[in-house]
C-alpha cells in the first residue's frame, strides 16, 4: 500500500512536470521558431481537420499552375498537391531547414511527383518576383514565423491578382493562430478572406489577393 508521503512526492513531481511543460509552451509561443528537424515525428502524424482532401478543396490546384508551399516540413501535403498540377505545373516547397527539404524531396520522389522544387529560404523574405504564383499555402506554420505580418505581406506580393492563399492551424500547437487573428492580420496586408472549414480549435481558411491589388 502506498503511504501518504509517497503520494505527496508523486503529486509534487507531477505538478513540477506540468508546470515545466506549461512554462516551455509559453516560452515557445512568445519566441516562435520552426519545429526542429529532430522533432519531425510530430509533424508527420495524421492531422484531424487539416486533411489533405480539405486542403486541396480550398486550394483548388489546377493543372499547369505554379503553387508555393511555405514550411512543407517532411512533405505531408506536397505530393498530394503536386499531383493535381501535372503535367506542367509545379510546387515550390520553401523551408528554412535544409533537412526538412531533403525529406520533402525524398517523399515526393517516392510518391512519383517530379514537379516539386525545394527552396531553402525565409518566409519573411521570399526569393521571388512579384506576381510569381497562382496560389500558396501553409499549414501549422504561420505561428512559427517571428513576423507574421511580414510573411503575409510577402505572400501577398508574390501572388498574382486573384491568387489564392490557404492557411491551416490546429491546436494544441503552441504557435496556434486563431481564425480571428488570421483574419485581422491578413486584412492589414490587403488580403481578402473567403471561407474556411473546421472550428475555432482547428481550421483551414482561404484568402485571396484582390484583382485590383
UniProtKB/TrEMBL annotation:
Keyword GTP-binding: no
A GO term for molecular function: methyltransferase activity
Listed CDD domains: AdoMet_MTases (cd02440)
Signal peptide (residue range): none
A Pfam family the protein falls into: Ubie_methyltran
GO biological process: methylation
Keywords: Methyltransferase, Transferase
Protein name: Methyltransferase type 11
Amino acid at each position: 500500500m502506498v503511504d501518504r508521503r509517497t503520494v505527496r512526492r508523486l503529486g509534487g513531481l507531477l505538478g513540477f512536470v506540468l508546470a515545466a511543460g506549461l512554462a516551455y509552451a509559453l516560452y515557445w509561443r512568445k519566441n516562435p521558431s520552426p519545429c526542429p528537424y529532430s522533432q519531425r515525428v510530430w509533424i508527420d502524424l495524421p492531422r484531424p481537420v487539416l486533411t489533405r482532401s480539405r486542403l486541396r478543396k480550398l486550394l483548388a490546384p489546377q493543372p499547369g499552375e505554379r503553387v508555393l508551399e511555405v514550411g512543407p516540413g517532411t512533405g505531408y501535403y506536397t505530393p498530394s498537391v503536386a499531383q493535381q498540377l501535372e503535367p506542367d505545373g509545379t510546387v515550390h516547397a520553401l523551408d528554412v531547414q535544409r533537412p526538412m527539404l531533403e525529406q520533402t524531396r525524398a517523399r515526393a520522389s517516392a510518391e512519383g511527383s517530379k514537379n516539386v522544387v525545394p527552396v531553402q529560404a525565409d518566409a519573411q523574405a521570399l526569393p521571388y518576383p512579384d506576381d510569381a504564383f497562382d496560389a500558396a499555402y501553409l499549414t501549422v506554420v504561420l505561428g512559427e514565423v517571428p513576423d507574421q505580418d511580414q510573411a503575409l505581406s510577402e505572400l501577398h506580393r508574390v501572388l498574382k491578382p486573384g491568387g489564392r492563399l490557404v492557411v491551416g492551424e490546429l491546436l494544441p500547437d503552441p504557435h496556434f493562430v486563431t481564425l480571428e487573428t488570421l483574419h485581422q492580420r491578413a486584412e492589414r496586408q490587403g488580403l481578402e478572406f473567403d471561407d474556411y472549414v473546421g472550428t475555432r480549435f482547428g481550421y483551414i481558411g482561404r484568402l485571396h489577393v484582390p484583382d485590383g491589388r
